[in-house]
Amino acid sequence: MEEDNAMYEKILIDIKNLIRSDPNLKDFCIVPINENKNKSPVLYEEHNLGLELWCVKYVYAYLYKQLFKLRRLLSKNRLIQQKSEEIDKYLISALLIHPEVATFWNMRRELVEYGVINLDIELLLTKLVLSNKSKSNEAFAYRKWIVSKLMKGIYKHDVVSTLALLNQEFTVTEMAAQNSPNNYHAWNHRMWCLQSAFVKHDFADTPMYLNLVFEQLDFSIRWIQSHISEHAGFHYRQYLLKCVLNSCCSVSERTGKIRCLLETFAHIKACDDEGFVQQLLGRSSTCVNRSMVNFILLLLEDLFYFMDQLNELFPGHEAVWYHRRFLIFHILQIAHEYHNVVWFRNVNVSGLMLNSNDNIINVDSGLSDTKYPKLPKYELDAVESSYLYKILLKFEFEHIQGNSLSKCIDAQRELARRHEKWLHFILCFNKSNSFI
Amino acid sequence: MVKLYSMSVLYKTGPDSAVCLKAAYDVQSFNFFQRGSIQEFMAFVSKTITERTHVAARQSVKQEDYMCHVYVRGDSLAGVVISDEDYPPRVSHTLITKVLDEFTQTVPASSWSTISERDINFPQLNAYLAKYQNPREADAMTKIQTDLDETKIILHNTIEAVLERGEKLDDLVAKSEGLSIQSKAFYKTARKTNSCCNFS
């Protein structure tokens, strides 16, 4: 027994020393080796840390017992200085093996509050935990706590340090999102970090803000292209696109491509982005503002370039179509706000057509003959008579047609059909209006 | 994820035997200490699947999040691609055709039955594996290759479906000589962790 305890202590000290001495550690994992080959179970190679499976059970039982013994001392705040090294040592291994125990994280918080451990080590530790268990909510919560402490320590004008901190968080969240698909906690953490950086520096009116947002938008393109069926990546992109609305800086260097396309398509000529969007939307009593112009042009670019590309390469992926819905919905929403028109759409769908499965099937058979239920005739409002609306109508119906051909795979045809239904019943798009 | 994990060229020496002529792997996304085992496993799966595919047939096998595509040509030369489930299958299959064509040009057919993996110089395989991680790169190529008839590819939903009647993956793993003791332990642990939701 004594001998065993000495061995466990040795393992714990090894792990702690490795973490202290190598700030470039990449990841931690429990390696499935079931036999005790009479050598140290702590593996360390090329900045990777591993622990052999056979010892985990015993080590964890040992340190669990030790930790709860020490916890009584910690709560009475006695001997804290003398014991802190020991507690730290146990906590590191305990959290690496089993990060779900909130009590352990809280004990670490106490140590941080007493000032006995360094915040950089905490960032490294949470990173290692997340490399092993990428969806650990407790680890992300703790990391948030540490990051907000670090953020508080940065001067208001010290943008460089904030950006360095942000980049570090981006790397960690990217790793976590890479390791396990649909990692809500990782993306949430990423957005929270961006948000707190924005709040801290009142970024919104500086070119810095848009730079950061555009950098992330480019990142999200790369991410989505390699994780096509994860809606999480699209959701991040949608968050970033909405961030564009907060800034009034010009982004004309990014909008050339989409303007070029639409200019030839709709025969619009304008010398700047504002004039261009105004012609697209038509005249209104309110004037166009910079942020709205940016937003609309970026959404249109996503719709006409990015979506097209993804659609061709990855047919049958639902997430792509959902992003398409997001884009169309928000373009139209902002157009309605601009014209001060109440948007006539079926918000309350459940009462209308789609309240039961039978009805959906009935609706389908109607769709295939393109005999829609008659909607009451009404005058086209300002939005519906705009160029933008007509372009959207035409493109969407062409898109649906293109993806309903017999050469397309079944899943893609099904998604196209659902998209058509959504356009018709939710947005009240009407095919008969689709001429220019 | 859209990812290619491995690409290999094999030679089917009999109705149920095959040898690996050349293979390339990308295991960077896996944990450092498990890369060796995972690579051994991919070699094992590639070989097993080739052995169970008929000459002049294409198959795709889905196993959990992975896809394994195989094509055995009329002259018994076979290509296997292991990718993530999101990687477009059409691209994988055209890629196999292309790689096999180039391999035939580089290494003469007469030597296939005798040559060993070490003596073959075919660095293009690694280059392709890196380049076609992005399927857009391959798209130009696939547009030219229209002769691929997707309806002829047999799709299986588990690897067990490819195995012959009575065969069990667990037994094959236990018997295999290509897998180290550590990899077998790794397989057992993975099997146990993944089956936590089963009541059997």
From TrEMBL, chain A:
Organism: Photinus pyralis
GO molecular function annotations of the record: protein prenyltransferase activity
Protein name (record): Protein prenyltransferase alpha subunit repeat-containing protein 1
One GO term describing the cellular component: cytoplasm
Entry-linked PANTHER family: PROTEIN FARNESYLTRANSFERASE ALPHA SUBUNIT/RAB GERANYLGERANYL TRANSFERASE ALPHA SUBUNIT, PROTEIN PRENYLTRANSFERASE ALPHA SUBUNIT REPEAT-CONTAINING PROTEIN 1
Family recorded in the similarity comment: Belongs to the protein prenyltransferase subunit alpha family.
Alphabetic keyword roster: Prenyltransferase, Repeat, Transferase
UniProtKB/TrEMBL annotation, chain B:
Coiled-coil residues: none
Gene3D superfamilies linked: 1.20.5.110, Longin domain
GO cellular component: cytoplasmic vesicle membrane; Golgi membrane
InterPro entries in the record: Longin-like_dom_sf, Longin_dom, R-SNARE_YKT6, V_SNARE_CC
Domain Longin residues, every copy: 9-129
Residue intervals of the V-SNARE coiled-coil homology domain: 140-200
Matching SMART domains: Longin
Keyword annotations from UniProtKB, A to Z: Coiled coil, Lipoprotein, Membrane, Methylation, Palmitate, Prenylation
UniProt xrefs under PROSITE patterns: LONGIN, V_SNARE
One of the GO biological process terms: endoplasmic reticulum to Golgi vesicle-mediated transport
Chief subcellular location: membrane
GO molecular function: SNAP receptor activity
Subcellular location: Cytoplasmic vesicle membrane; Golgi apparatus membrane
Membrane topology: Lipid-anchor
Family annotation (Pfam families): Longin, Synaptobrevin
Family: Belongs to the synaptobrevin family.
Function: Vesicular soluble NSF attachment protein receptor (v-SNARE) mediating vesicle docking and fusion to a specific acceptor cellular compartment. Functions in endoplasmic reticulum to Golgi transport; as part of a SNARE complex composed of GOSR1, GOSR2 and STX5. Functions in early/recycling endosome to TGN transport; as part of a SNARE complex composed of BET1L, GOSR1 and STX5. Has a S-palmitoyl transferase activity.
PANTHER family with a match to the protein in the record: SYNAPTOBREVIN HOMOLOG YKT6
Protein name (record): V-SNARE coiled-coil homology domain-containing protein
Organism of derivation: Photinus pyralis (Common eastern firefly)
Organism placement in taxonomy: Eukaryota, Metazoa, Ecdysozoa, Arthropoda, Hexapoda
